[in-house]
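can u pls check wat happens w/ zinc ion
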Amino acid sequence: MFIDSHCHLDFPDLAANLDELLLRMQENQVTHALCVSVNLPHFPRVRALAEAHENLFASVGVHPDYEDQIEPEADELADLANHPKVIAIGETGLDYFRLTGDLEWQRKRFRQHIRAARKANKPLIVHTRSAAADTLRIMQEEGADEVGGVMHCFTESWEVAQQAIAMNFYISFSGIVTFKNAVALKEVAKNIQLNRMLIETDSPYLAPVPFRGKLNQPAFVRHVAEEIAQLRAVTIEEIAVATTDNFFNLFKVNRNG
Ligand SMILES: [Zn+2]
Ligand SMILES: [Zn+2]
């Protein structure tokens, strides 16, 4: 069985075909998926997905690319996370690629999320792009290691991965690892500790080969696992078992729902 540790099933393109996507998951042994929140106005629909479906979970947070949002306070985020199906805080983090200029607001927002995670005692889902040094520094300064979490859609170096792991974090690989030009990332996926690895789709974005350019969906997470198995010269079952165990360990959820 496989778990998609990061997707956005509430986004309109996916939400419109939810029944079909759940069926495709079932056909591909993708047993669970974590629906990740990107802003608070839409959080209720993310939570509703997790409430309506036993095998879906939710997170709560405000994405660093969503600039025009009311800034969330740690207390508010921690309160919203106080729900049995809300298993993480995020996605949060820093993105110096999509946005430029004075991004102090991103760093402040990230700190609020880490404080919320510590208050709620739930792990973090961290998005980092062109901002690895600041991301790690703020994680360190705010004590993110106390709750741990996942570096989602990982595209950074081996060194960044090891520093995150040293802070009690997991590394999650998306469809990017299947792309031909992702040479350095393939090396990270080949050599990283198996007990620290997660897999995800980040759907609707980043569909893996052979669906590159198409609308992504949780069922495709199997192709991420397949690529990693090939890189490591192990069976896909080994990757499935490890990443599934890692998911349940990190998010402290009962495998039987
Ligand atoms: Zn992200
Ligand atoms: Zn995402």
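The CA atoms of residues 171 and 197 lie 5 Å apart.
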